What does this fold into?
Amino acid sequence: MRISRRAFTLLLLASASARADDAAAAPVRAMLAGLTAAMKAGRTPFAARAAALRPAVLACFDLPAILQASIGPRWAGFPPAQQAELRAAFEEFTIATWVANFNADDGTRLDLLAEQRSVGEDVVVATRVLPASGDPTRLDYVMRRTASGWRAVDMLVEGSISRVAVQRSDFRALVKDGSPAPLIAMLRDKAAELAR
It folds into this structure.
């Protein structure tokens, strides 16, 4: 059977697109595996669960990009030492949030859905959290190709509520006076509270 040049080109493009989609989904798949392990380890100390989940979170999310998008233009005005301190506090807060929300093996199931869509250069990878009782929650990871591979730059709850947009209003209010100190303090306090 002979294929036309156009059909062959379309097949190559579809194959390249499928590989990109699979590559974009790989960090999400690892994140779901990390969260499942965190739930199964629910009775172990919080610090141990956070240390175990840290690699999956850092491999899945572009936390510096998320933080900068959440803060906006004021980010560039912070001295490098304060930027580093803010990045560290945001990383601890993010990991603590995931560990605290997935802290017990209560029958919750995490599914990577086959559904993916492209938005410009980004690929949106759909997942679903299925609690043992109650309604499922859809969490979509907005994945972007970076120098370090595919990383999530946002999450969409129920397909439309942007986590970055929610953080943006909270974070920008705390840095409106030009200092990141109130935001750093808030992130550290919340991380400590979640770890209790």
